[in-house]
Specification:
about 150 residues; mainly alpha
Length: about 150
């Protein structure tokens, strides 16, 4: 870029009132099929996440149990033969059990929270439907008064 071209760009920017701030952002709701700023999720999506959490819980319970039992058995055998590695493996096995419980608790929490959320939304939908139908009934009463 030549120096005069740079000067020309600076002059052009100054002429456009460059003292204003411009923020780059996600465009707001454009309506009519445009972008939407709200988070939306379907029941199908929630069910898939809940199922994945339950499957992980069930599978990890089974397989982590196998690993724990095998590690404890190996640690006991090594300790029985006088190897210091047995104590270290026993420590690793204990930590494995603690971490396993943490992961299983998280999976159960996800699954339970999704079940609660689904039930709460069902209750909310029922309440809203009742409130809206009450408004419609009230509106009908006002409409009847207009006719007389």
């Amino acid at each position: 870029m030549a120096w005069d071209e740079w000067d020309q760009l600076k002059a052009s920017a100054a002429a456009q009132d460059s003292t204003q701030m411009q923020l780059n952002q996600y465009p707001g709701d454009q309506g009519g099929g445009g972008t939407r700023g709200d988070l939306e999720v379907s029941n199908q999506g929630l069910e898939a996440v809940g199922k994945a959490a339950r499957d992980l819980f069930n599978d990890f319970t089974t397989y982590s149990g196998h690993a724990r039992v095998a590690s404890e058995k190996a640690a006991g055998g090594l300790k029985g033969e006088g190897f210091a590695l047995g104590g270290a493996l026993e420590h690793v096995s204990a930590r494995w059990s603690e971490q396993t419980k943490t992961l299983l608790d998280a999976c159960a929490h996800i699954s339970n929270h999704l079940r609660f959320t689904k039930n709460q939304h069902t209750a909310d939908d029922s309440y809203i439907a009742g409130a809206v139908s009450s408004i419609a009934t009230l509106d009908e009463g006002f409409d009847d008064l207009k006719d007389h």
